[in-house]
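User: What would this chain look like folded?
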Amino acid sequence: MAQQIPVDPAARADDPASDAARDDAVHEIAPDFAYRRLALVNVVFVGAPGAGDRGFTLIDAGIPGTMGLIRAAAEARFGAGARPAAIVLTHGHFDHVGVLEDLAAEWDAPVYAHALERPYLDGSAAYPPGDPGVGGGAMALLAPLYPRKPVDVSARLQTLPEDGGVPPMPGWRWIHTPGHAPGHVSLWRAADRSLIAGDAFVTTAQESAYAVAVQAPEIHGPPKYFTIDWEAARDSVRALTALEPERAITGHGRPLQGPELRRGLTELARDFDRVAVPEQGRYVDAPARAADGSAYRAP
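Assistant: Here's the prediction, encoded as structure tokens.
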């Protein structure tokens, strides 16, 4: 069974030469759109360089121990002491909220997320267990050890508005893309067809420690070990494919752009059951969903 859709490395949406010249560890995708890789996950910055305090938005909040790296990247790009207007979450898995509590407190920043992710962000519910039996790599085998307990940013937590707008990000809209998590969202800017996909799909084999280290550009479905509803995940990939994005950054892997991105997404959407869904696994036949409460466990 195929496990990946290879992509021409020339389809990378960032420019290594330009990045090296800036020497700030931030990889620019567009003039007001950049990311910072933190070991095994990406955080995204939306805002013009030099925008200053409250002039940008941070999407997701890394893994534990990366607070200094995120702060330094923000100050290098936006100015000394620059704080975001808000932190927007694609979802609340541990590798996307690792330093959320500390960053939100230090920056006194509101945190925006989908209503179905709130229980994981206000301390009231934990995610279902990871599945070490899918994916066949070291990252998947370690799934039982990954933190599942919720963080608690309830004092600063805001629900994304029902009209699809993202208050701190003019021109962007959120799209509900569940499957990997009940309240997973992707962010879309129609003006230049830019996509922040979170883990709705990824551009590296996240189950494999080797692939995570090498970062060869490939298009995959969501990380298997934490995906709890494969039917919803398939629908989410198809919805994002229909947008025909020009460029996309995912939670894991390098950003991609152009015809190669769209070709790879089209193949993933068409062959999702063969390429992305495990032959067997904890959630293949018994998905965990918000509607029946099975997606939420005691913290």
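Residues 27 and 35 are 5 Å apart (CA to CA). If you want, I can go into more detail on any region.
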